[in-house]
Design goal:
Blueprint (H helix, E strand, L loop, with lengths): L1 E5 L2 E5 L21 E10 L2 E4 L4 E4 L2 E6 L8 E6 L2 E4 L2 E3 L4 E4 L6 E3 L2 E3 L2 E8 L2 E9 H6 L2 H4 L6 H20 L9 E2 L15 H9 L3 E5 L5 E2 L4 E2 L9 H4 L29 E4 H19 L13 E7 L5 E7 L5 E5 H9 L14 E3 L6 E5 L10 E2 H9 L4 H8 L4 E4 L2
Parallel strand pairs: 3-15, 18-25
Antiparallel strand pairs: 1-2, 3-14, 4-7, 4-11, 5-6, 5-10, 7-8, 8-9, 10-13, 11-12, 13-14, 16-17, 16-26, 19-24, 20-21, 21-22, 23-24
Helix pairs in contact: 3-4, 3-8, 3-9, 6-7
Amino acid sequence: MRYLATLGFVLFLTALPVGCSQEAEPIPVATNVPRVRVLLLQDVDRADVVADEPQITLDSTPTVNALAFPRSLTVSVSLAPDGWHIGRRLLRTGALTLQPTNADPIQVNRIAYRGSIRLLPTGAGRFDVINDLDAEDYLAGVVTEEMESSWPVEAIKAQAIASRTYALYETYRSGVHRAWDVYADERSQMYGGVNGETSKGRQAVAATSGIVLTYGPGDGTIFKAYFSSCCGGVTQAASDAFPGDPYIPPLAEQSHGTCCNGSKYYNWGPITITKTELARRVHVWALRASKELGRAVPELNITGVYRIDLQGVNRYGRPNRVLVTDIRGVQYSWTAEQLRTAVDTDARPGTKLPSSYCKINGDPNSDSVTFYDGHGFGHGVGMCQWCADARAAAGWNCDQILVDAYPQAKLVRAY
């Protein structure tokens, strides 16, 4: 075995690349499967739990206790100054872990999860809820939440490998700085727990067990394998969408033509939003960004929206930069993806931008902005899921789909 090292983390890899074509050798059962820590609920004051005599561990005491929950009944869990209130029971304060003692997964807010559930205090009476489980079990709850289960299995296998790569990258990079690795929603990738599993999804995960994408010399290094629903014909580079991300061939912009025109979002628009409403959304976005970063962002000072202009496009004509001017004449240069995020913040259904791949009429003489001639759904970086579906329907296997989606990437076994 060789070590794969990048950005301060390591994964074991076999020396040779592997494929997932139908002619490949059978893939053995994975061993030494890493754990993934999924943030289910953030900064809540209550969680409803269903569990059958789980083992309970508090970091404030080494004792492991078995607590009898009423079978099949919901128990409310909350945190107070005197400790954890679990139904009518009171336990000391500190990080609380619930480990199942039988085959029945623990339910949190009516959703069942494999592995253990960790409740981590975050402040006065509030806590995070984190699901710690094997990576393969985690992926079983991801792939058909991210893709339609009716799609060809080769597309879902491609999704399994991309999702595994993304999750492990986050686990061994972002996860070292916090108590969890990935969100359970679109901020990372959609995760539905046991409720999100399907037989086809489990089949795709098992058939690709341990396989990830890498880039570079030799076995390469793992990278953040982004994916989105529909690219609208042109993807964008990760470095364009997400400032600070490197420009590498697997995450570079590509033209896919009409490959994903099966999506209803291949073409969309127009969407018109008043400048007053846009200013409100930008302010909410700036407030949330400031809270997350722990410092005030410049956009907090925006006073109204005067105009929005296209500032740049990538080599295939997809917008990648915009210039926002407020009513004082102060200008803010954003990535097109930052604009979409701001526009979609706290937006009512039907008034969100499906993607940043669109034209903009931000006429300063108008009291509104119109986004038109739009294409695609999502950030458009990496694998286009609707393209993967079309490729699989045309007879491509998952390794062909992945190498097309992530140029110069390799498939290797991480465990």
